[in-house]
Specification:
By secondary structure, the chain is α/β, with parallel strands linked by helices. It folds into two domains: about 5-270, Aldolase class I (TIM Barrel, Alpha-Beta Barrel), CATH 3.20.20.70; about 290-395, no CATH class. It contains 16 helices and ten strands. The chain has an eight-stranded parallel barrel, surrounded by eight helices. The protein has a two-stranded parallel ribbon with strand order 9-10. Helix 7 links the parallel strand 6 (about 165-170) and strand 7. Bound molecules: 3-hydroxy-3-carboxy-adipic acid and copper (II) ion. 3-hydroxy-3-carboxy-adipic acid binds near residues 94, 140 and 171.
Protein backbone atom coordinates (compact mmCIF):
# COMPACT_ATOMS: atom_id res chain seq x y z
CA UNK A 1 0.00 0.00 0.00
CA UNK A 2 1.23 3.47 -0.58
CA UNK A 3 1.37 5.42 2.65
CA UNK A 4 -0.83 8.13 1.18
CA UNK A 5 -3.93 6.02 1.51
CA UNK A 6 -4.02 5.70 5.27
CA UNK A 7 -7.04 6.85 7.25
CA UNK A 8 -7.49 7.69 10.91
CA UNK A 9 -10.27 6.07 12.90
CA UNK A 10 -10.58 8.29 15.93
CA UNK A 11 -11.97 6.35 18.85
CA UNK A 12 -12.18 9.12 21.46
CA UNK A 13 -15.90 8.40 21.60
CA UNK A 14 -15.36 4.64 22.18
CA UNK A 15 -11.89 3.71 23.45
CA UNK A 16 -11.62 7.24 24.90
CA UNK A 17 -14.83 6.71 26.83
CA UNK A 18 -13.04 3.85 28.58
CA UNK A 19 -10.57 6.36 30.10
CA UNK A 20 -11.18 6.47 33.81
CA UNK A 21 -12.12 10.19 33.88
CA UNK A 22 -14.28 10.19 30.76
CA UNK A 23 -17.98 10.65 31.32
CA UNK A 24 -19.18 12.60 28.29
CA UNK A 25 -22.74 13.88 28.13
CA UNK A 26 -24.80 13.56 24.96
CA UNK A 27 -24.12 17.20 24.07
CA UNK A 28 -20.41 16.83 24.75
CA UNK A 29 -20.26 13.77 22.48
CA UNK A 30 -21.91 15.72 19.70
CA UNK A 31 -19.44 18.57 20.23
CA UNK A 32 -16.48 16.15 20.16
CA UNK A 33 -17.79 14.43 17.03
CA UNK A 34 -18.14 17.76 15.24
CA UNK A 35 -14.68 18.90 16.36
CA UNK A 36 -13.05 15.67 15.16
CA UNK A 37 -14.89 15.94 11.86
CA UNK A 38 -13.81 19.56 11.49
CA UNK A 39 -10.21 18.52 12.15
CA UNK A 40 -10.58 16.00 9.33
CA UNK A 41 -10.29 12.50 10.77
CA UNK A 42 -11.70 10.06 8.25
CA UNK A 43 -13.75 7.90 10.65
CA UNK A 44 -15.21 8.15 14.15
CA UNK A 45 -15.78 5.10 16.32
CA UNK A 46 -18.57 5.23 18.90
CA UNK A 47 -19.31 3.16 21.97
CA UNK A 48 -21.58 0.19 21.37
CA UNK A 49 -25.26 1.16 21.44
CA UNK A 50 -25.75 -1.84 23.70
CA UNK A 51 -23.68 -0.23 26.46
CA UNK A 52 -26.61 1.87 27.70
CA UNK A 53 -29.78 3.54 26.38
CA UNK A 54 -27.85 6.84 26.27
CA UNK A 55 -25.13 5.24 24.13
CA UNK A 56 -27.76 4.14 21.60
CA UNK A 57 -29.17 7.66 21.52
CA UNK A 58 -25.65 9.10 21.07
CA UNK A 59 -25.05 6.78 18.10
CA UNK A 60 -28.39 7.66 16.49
CA UNK A 61 -27.75 11.39 16.84
CA UNK A 62 -24.13 11.37 15.67
CA UNK A 63 -24.97 9.10 12.73
CA UNK A 64 -27.45 11.76 11.59
CA UNK A 65 -25.24 14.84 11.97
CA UNK A 66 -24.24 14.67 8.32
CA UNK A 67 -20.51 14.60 9.12
CA UNK A 68 -17.91 14.02 6.44
CA UNK A 69 -16.28 11.40 8.66
CA UNK A 70 -17.73 7.89 8.53
CA UNK A 71 -19.48 7.09 11.78
CA UNK A 72 -18.78 3.58 13.05
CA UNK A 73 -19.77 1.74 16.16
CA UNK A 74 -17.99 -1.03 17.99
CA UNK A 75 -19.74 -4.29 18.86
CA UNK A 76 -19.14 -7.82 20.06
CA UNK A 77 -19.36 -10.59 17.49
CA UNK A 78 -23.05 -11.27 18.12
CA UNK A 79 -26.11 -10.94 15.89
CA UNK A 80 -28.12 -9.21 18.59
CA UNK A 81 -25.43 -6.52 18.97
CA UNK A 82 -25.29 -6.11 15.20
CA UNK A 83 -29.07 -5.77 14.93
CA UNK A 84 -29.20 -3.01 17.54
CA UNK A 85 -26.18 -1.27 16.00
CA UNK A 86 -27.65 -1.34 12.48
CA UNK A 87 -30.83 0.25 13.81
CA UNK A 88 -28.89 3.35 14.87
CA UNK A 89 -28.12 4.23 11.25
CA UNK A 90 -24.30 4.24 11.56
CA UNK A 91 -22.21 3.82 8.42
CA UNK A 92 -20.09 0.98 9.73
CA UNK A 93 -19.71 -1.78 12.31
CA UNK A 94 -16.43 -2.67 13.99
CA UNK A 95 -16.89 -6.25 15.15
CA UNK A 96 -14.44 -7.71 17.66
CA UNK A 97 -13.79 -11.08 19.31
CA UNK A 98 -10.91 -12.23 21.51
CA UNK A 99 -8.53 -14.88 20.20
CA UNK A 100 -5.83 -15.08 22.88
CA UNK A 101 -5.93 -18.05 25.22
CA UNK A 102 -6.56 -15.69 28.17
CA UNK A 103 -9.64 -14.20 26.51
CA UNK A 104 -10.84 -17.55 25.23
CA UNK A 105 -10.56 -19.02 28.72
CA UNK A 106 -11.69 -16.09 30.87
CA UNK A 107 -13.97 -14.10 28.56
CA UNK A 108 -16.04 -16.10 26.07
CA UNK A 109 -14.86 -19.76 26.44
CA UNK A 110 -14.79 -20.46 22.69
CA UNK A 111 -12.35 -22.56 20.69
CA UNK A 112 -10.76 -21.19 17.50
CA UNK A 113 -13.15 -23.39 15.45
CA UNK A 114 -16.11 -21.93 17.29
CA UNK A 115 -14.80 -18.39 16.77
CA UNK A 116 -14.51 -18.99 13.02
CA UNK A 117 -18.03 -20.43 12.82
CA UNK A 118 -19.51 -17.60 14.87
CA UNK A 119 -17.70 -14.93 12.85
CA UNK A 120 -18.92 -16.49 9.59
CA UNK A 121 -22.48 -16.61 10.85
CA UNK A 122 -22.55 -13.06 12.26
CA UNK A 123 -20.61 -11.35 9.46
CA UNK A 124 -22.55 -12.92 6.59
CA UNK A 125 -25.79 -12.06 8.38
CA UNK A 126 -24.71 -8.41 8.79
CA UNK A 127 -23.76 -8.23 5.13
CA UNK A 128 -27.12 -9.68 4.11
CA UNK A 129 -28.89 -7.06 6.20
CA UNK A 130 -26.74 -4.12 5.17
CA UNK A 131 -25.06 -4.57 1.80
CA UNK A 132 -23.50 -1.09 1.84
CA UNK A 133 -22.28 -0.86 5.40
CA UNK A 134 -18.56 -0.75 6.18
CA UNK A 135 -17.83 -3.98 8.01
CA UNK A 136 -14.71 -4.64 10.00
CA UNK A 137 -13.72 -7.79 11.81
CA UNK A 138 -11.02 -7.64 14.48
CA UNK A 139 -9.40 -10.04 16.87
CA UNK A 140 -8.81 -8.77 20.39
CA UNK A 141 -5.47 -9.37 22.11
CA UNK A 142 -4.04 -10.30 18.69
CA UNK A 143 -0.42 -10.11 19.82
CA UNK A 144 -0.84 -12.66 22.61
CA UNK A 145 -2.76 -15.03 20.35
CA UNK A 146 -1.05 -17.99 18.71
CA UNK A 147 -0.01 -16.73 15.28
CA UNK A 148 -1.33 -19.87 13.63
CA UNK A 149 -4.75 -19.32 15.28
CA UNK A 150 -4.74 -15.67 14.30
CA UNK A 151 -4.08 -16.29 10.64
CA UNK A 152 -6.56 -19.18 10.50
CA UNK A 153 -9.26 -16.84 11.74
CA UNK A 154 -8.31 -13.96 9.42
CA UNK A 155 -8.04 -16.20 6.36
CA UNK A 156 -11.40 -17.77 7.05
CA UNK A 157 -13.02 -14.37 7.50
CA UNK A 158 -11.33 -12.84 4.46
CA UNK A 159 -12.53 -15.76 2.31
CA UNK A 160 -16.13 -15.00 3.24
CA UNK A 161 -15.76 -11.92 1.06
CA UNK A 162 -18.08 -9.85 3.27
CA UNK A 163 -15.74 -7.66 5.32
CA UNK A 164 -14.05 -4.46 4.16
CA UNK A 165 -11.41 -4.47 6.84
CA UNK A 166 -9.53 -6.76 9.17
CA UNK A 167 -8.46 -5.31 12.50
CA UNK A 168 -5.48 -6.25 14.59
CA UNK A 169 -5.28 -5.10 18.19
CA UNK A 170 -2.43 -4.79 20.67
CA UNK A 171 -4.90 -4.84 23.53
CA UNK A 172 -2.41 -4.85 26.41
CA UNK A 173 0.32 -2.75 24.77
CA UNK A 174 3.09 -5.33 24.54
CA UNK A 175 3.83 -5.43 20.81
CA UNK A 176 7.04 -4.00 19.39
CA UNK A 177 7.27 -2.06 16.12
CA UNK A 178 9.18 -4.87 14.39
CA UNK A 179 6.58 -7.42 15.41
CA UNK A 180 3.70 -5.18 14.27
CA UNK A 181 5.31 -4.54 10.87
CA UNK A 182 5.91 -8.28 10.41
CA UNK A 183 2.41 -9.44 11.39
CA UNK A 184 0.64 -6.68 9.49
CA UNK A 185 2.89 -7.37 6.48
CA UNK A 186 1.97 -11.08 6.55
CA UNK A 187 -1.72 -10.27 6.86
CA UNK A 188 -1.38 -7.84 3.97
CA UNK A 189 0.08 -10.54 1.72
CA UNK A 190 -2.40 -13.21 2.76
CA UNK A 191 -5.65 -11.27 2.57
CA UNK A 192 -7.42 -8.78 0.33
CA UNK A 193 -9.19 -6.62 2.90
CA UNK A 194 -7.99 -3.29 4.29
CA UNK A 195 -6.10 -3.55 7.58
CA UNK A 196 -6.68 -1.58 10.76
CA UNK A 197 -4.29 -1.36 13.69
CA UNK A 198 -5.30 -0.53 17.26
CA UNK A 199 -2.45 -0.30 19.76
CA UNK A 200 -2.32 0.41 23.48
CA UNK A 201 0.47 2.35 25.13
CA UNK A 202 1.29 0.28 28.23
CA UNK A 203 4.93 -0.02 27.22
CA UNK A 204 5.19 3.30 25.41
CA UNK A 205 5.10 2.05 21.81
CA UNK A 206 1.58 2.94 20.68
CA UNK A 207 2.57 5.57 18.12
CA UNK A 208 5.67 3.70 16.97
CA UNK A 209 3.56 0.59 16.53
CA UNK A 210 0.90 2.51 14.61
CA UNK A 211 3.55 3.78 12.24
CA UNK A 212 5.09 0.30 11.93
CA UNK A 213 1.62 -0.95 11.01
CA UNK A 214 1.44 1.67 8.24
CA UNK A 215 4.86 0.57 7.01
CA UNK A 216 3.67 -3.03 7.07
CA UNK A 217 0.68 -2.14 4.89
CA UNK A 218 -2.09 -1.10 7.31
CA UNK A 219 -4.67 1.25 5.84
CA UNK A 220 -6.40 2.42 9.02
CA UNK A 221 -5.02 3.54 12.39
CA UNK A 222 -6.98 3.95 15.61
CA UNK A 223 -6.25 7.02 17.71
CA UNK A 224 -7.86 9.04 20.47
CA UNK A 225 -7.37 12.68 21.39
CA UNK A 226 -4.51 12.84 23.93
CA UNK A 227 -4.35 9.04 23.68
CA UNK A 228 -7.07 8.55 26.30
CA UNK A 229 -8.47 5.07 26.73
CA UNK A 230 -8.52 1.98 28.91
CA UNK A 231 -5.59 2.12 31.40
CA UNK A 232 -3.06 4.61 29.92
CA UNK A 233 -4.72 4.54 26.53
CA UNK A 234 -3.77 4.13 22.87
CA UNK A 235 -1.94 6.09 20.16
CA UNK A 236 -2.59 9.79 20.58
CA UNK A 237 -4.09 11.57 17.58
CA UNK A 238 -1.66 14.49 17.89
CA UNK A 239 1.41 12.30 18.23
CA UNK A 240 0.36 10.14 15.30
CA UNK A 241 -0.22 13.29 13.25
CA UNK A 242 3.29 14.46 14.22
CA UNK A 243 4.72 11.10 13.12
CA UNK A 244 2.93 11.18 9.75
CA UNK A 245 3.82 14.85 9.22
CA UNK A 246 7.52 14.12 9.57
CA UNK A 247 6.99 11.41 6.97
CA UNK A 248 4.98 13.45 4.45
CA UNK A 249 4.34 17.04 5.47
CA UNK A 250 2.28 18.08 2.43
CA UNK A 251 0.00 15.08 2.64
CA UNK A 252 -0.77 15.68 6.31
CA UNK A 253 -1.29 19.42 5.72
CA UNK A 254 -3.79 18.58 2.98
CA UNK A 255 -5.66 15.92 4.91
CA UNK A 256 -6.26 17.69 8.23
CA UNK A 257 -6.92 21.14 9.67
CA UNK A 258 -3.75 21.09 11.70
CA UNK A 259 -4.36 24.38 13.46
CA UNK A 260 -7.42 22.77 15.07
CA UNK A 261 -5.37 20.20 16.96
CA UNK A 262 -4.69 22.36 19.98
CA UNK A 263 -8.36 23.31 20.38
CA UNK A 264 -9.37 19.67 20.09
CA UNK A 265 -6.87 18.64 22.76
CA UNK A 266 -7.88 21.49 25.06
CA UNK A 267 -11.52 20.48 24.67
CA UNK A 268 -10.87 16.86 25.65
CA UNK A 269 -8.41 17.83 28.40
CA UNK A 270 -11.04 20.04 29.97
CA UNK A 271 -13.86 17.52 29.61
CA UNK A 272 -11.86 14.74 31.27
CA UNK A 273 -10.09 16.97 33.80
CA UNK A 274 -6.46 16.54 32.78
CA UNK A 275 -3.71 18.89 31.63
CA UNK A 276 -2.03 18.61 28.27
CA UNK A 277 1.28 16.87 29.18
CA UNK A 278 4.26 19.25 29.19
CA UNK A 279 6.08 17.07 26.66
CA UNK A 280 3.10 16.36 24.41
CA UNK A 281 3.99 16.30 20.71
CA UNK A 282 3.15 19.64 19.05
CA UNK A 283 1.04 21.14 21.85
CA UNK A 284 3.08 20.40 24.99
CA UNK A 285 4.22 23.67 26.49
CA UNK A 286 7.87 23.01 25.67
CA UNK A 287 7.25 21.38 22.25
CA UNK A 288 8.77 24.38 20.45
CA UNK A 289 11.01 25.95 23.10
CA UNK A 290 14.70 26.29 22.46
CA UNK A 291 17.22 26.83 25.18
CA UNK A 292 20.89 26.12 24.49
CA UNK A 293 22.72 29.06 22.90
CA UNK A 294 23.93 26.94 20.00
CA UNK A 295 20.37 25.81 19.25
CA UNK A 296 18.98 29.31 19.65
CA UNK A 297 21.49 30.73 17.20
CA UNK A 298 20.59 28.15 14.55
CA UNK A 299 16.86 28.52 15.20
CA UNK A 300 17.09 32.27 14.65
CA UNK A 301 18.87 31.67 11.35
CA UNK A 302 16.84 28.71 10.08
CA UNK A 303 14.22 27.14 12.38
CA UNK A 304 14.23 23.80 10.57
CA UNK A 305 17.75 23.22 11.91
CA UNK A 306 16.23 22.12 15.21
CA UNK A 307 12.54 21.78 14.34
CA UNK A 308 11.20 18.76 12.47
CA UNK A 309 7.72 20.27 12.59
CA UNK A 310 6.79 23.82 11.70
CA UNK A 311 4.86 25.27 14.65
CA UNK A 312 3.02 27.70 12.37
CA UNK A 313 1.26 24.81 10.65
CA UNK A 314 -0.30 23.97 14.00
CA UNK A 315 -1.05 27.55 15.05
CA UNK A 316 1.45 27.43 17.91
CA UNK A 317 4.52 29.56 18.47
CA UNK A 318 8.15 28.87 19.07
CA UNK A 319 9.90 30.30 22.10
CA UNK A 320 13.61 30.92 22.38
CA UNK A 321 14.62 31.04 26.01
CA UNK A 322 17.61 33.24 26.84
CA UNK A 323 17.41 33.75 30.59
CA UNK A 324 19.80 31.02 31.69
CA UNK A 325 23.44 30.04 31.85
CA UNK A 326 23.35 28.12 28.54
CA UNK A 327 22.41 31.25 26.64
CA UNK A 328 24.42 32.66 23.75
CA UNK A 329 24.98 36.16 22.41
CA UNK A 330 23.12 35.54 19.13
CA UNK A 331 19.98 34.73 21.06
CA UNK A 332 20.44 37.76 23.34
CA UNK A 333 20.92 39.91 20.26
CA UNK A 334 17.76 38.42 18.77
CA UNK A 335 15.85 39.48 21.87
CA UNK A 336 17.38 42.97 21.78
CA UNK A 337 16.22 43.32 18.18
CA UNK A 338 12.72 42.14 19.13
CA UNK A 339 12.56 44.78 21.87
CA UNK A 340 14.03 47.45 19.58
CA UNK A 341 16.90 47.95 22.01
CA UNK A 342 20.08 49.36 20.46
CA UNK A 343 23.27 47.71 21.73
CA UNK A 344 26.52 47.10 19.89
CA UNK A 345 27.72 43.54 19.33
CA UNK A 346 30.42 44.15 21.92
CA UNK A 347 27.85 45.25 24.47
CA UNK A 348 25.63 42.25 23.67
CA UNK A 349 28.57 39.92 24.16
CA UNK A 350 29.45 41.54 27.47
CA UNK A 351 25.83 41.44 28.60
CA UNK A 352 25.63 37.75 27.65
CA UNK A 353 28.59 36.98 29.90
CA UNK A 354 26.89 38.95 32.63
CA UNK A 355 23.61 37.02 32.20
CA UNK A 356 25.51 33.73 32.41
CA UNK A 357 27.19 34.82 35.64
CA UNK A 358 23.89 35.96 37.13
CA UNK A 359 22.21 32.72 36.10
CA UNK A 360 24.88 30.80 37.99
CA UNK A 361 23.75 32.71 41.07
CA UNK A 362 19.99 32.63 40.75
CA UNK A 363 17.08 31.70 38.54
CA UNK A 364 16.46 34.45 35.98
CA UNK A 365 13.24 35.28 34.21
CA UNK A 366 12.74 36.69 30.76
CA UNK A 367 11.63 39.95 32.42
CA UNK A 368 14.98 40.14 34.25
CA UNK A 369 16.81 39.82 30.93
CA UNK A 370 14.56 42.39 29.28
CA UNK A 371 15.25 44.79 32.18
CA UNK A 372 18.97 44.24 31.79
CA UNK A 373 18.80 44.86 28.04
CA UNK A 374 16.99 48.15 28.60
CA UNK A 375 19.31 49.22 31.42
CA UNK A 376 22.37 48.51 29.31
CA UNK A 377 20.87 50.26 26.27
CA UNK A 378 20.16 53.35 28.38
CA UNK A 379 23.68 53.25 29.72
CA UNK A 380 22.31 52.94 33.25
CA UNK A 381 23.92 49.72 34.14
CA UNK A 382 26.70 49.57 36.62
CA UNK A 383 27.91 47.02 39.08
CA UNK A 384 25.51 48.27 41.75
CA UNK A 385 22.28 48.10 39.72
CA UNK A 386 23.19 44.77 38.18
CA UNK A 387 24.07 43.16 41.44
CA UNK A 388 20.94 44.66 43.05
CA UNK A 389 18.91 43.03 40.29
CA UNK A 390 20.68 39.74 40.69
CA UNK A 391 20.67 39.48 44.46
CA UNK A 392 17.63 41.38 45.71
CA UNK A 393 15.25 38.42 45.78
CA UNK A 394 17.76 35.71 46.15
CA UNK A 395 16.79 32.93 48.48
CA UNK A 396 18.39 29.51 48.81
CA UNK A 397 15.53 28.09 46.74
CA UNK A 398 16.00 30.67 43.99
CA UNK A 399 19.65 29.94 43.83
CA UNK A 400 19.18 26.31 42.83
C1 LIG B 1 -12.03 -3.32 23.92
C2 LIG B 1 -10.80 -3.93 23.36
C3 LIG B 1 -10.13 -3.18 22.25
C4 LIG B 1 -10.76 -3.48 20.92
C5 LIG B 1 -9.98 -2.96 19.75
C6 LIG B 1 -10.66 -3.06 18.41
C7 LIG B 1 -8.67 -3.65 22.28
O1 LIG B 1 -11.92 -2.48 24.81
O2 LIG B 1 -13.11 -3.69 23.49
O3 LIG B 1 -11.79 -3.51 18.32
O4 LIG B 1 -10.03 -2.65 17.43
O5 LIG B 1 -7.79 -2.88 22.70
O6 LIG B 1 -8.44 -4.80 21.94
O7 LIG B 1 -10.16 -1.79 22.50
CU1 LIG C 1 -8.37 -0.87 23.01
Amino acid sequence: MSLEQYAIIDSTLREGEQFINANFTHEQKVEIARALDEFGVECLELTSPLASPGSAEDARTIARLGLKAKVLTHIRCQKEDARVALDTGVAGLDVVIGTSSALRRFSHSKSIEEIIDLAADVLTWIRSQAPDIVLRFSTEDSFRSEEADLFRVYLAVDRLGVVNRLGIADTVGIASPGQVARIVGTLRRMTKADIEFHGHNDSGCAVANAFAAIEGGATHIDTTVLGIGERNGIASLGAFIARMYTWDRDLVRDKYHLDGLRGLELLIAELVGVDIPFNNCITGYCAFTHKAGIHAKAILNAPETYEALDPHDFGVTRYVSIAHRLTGWNAVKGRADQLGVALSTEQIKALTLHIKALADEKRLTMDDVDDLLRLWANGHHDAATDSALSLAEETPADAQ
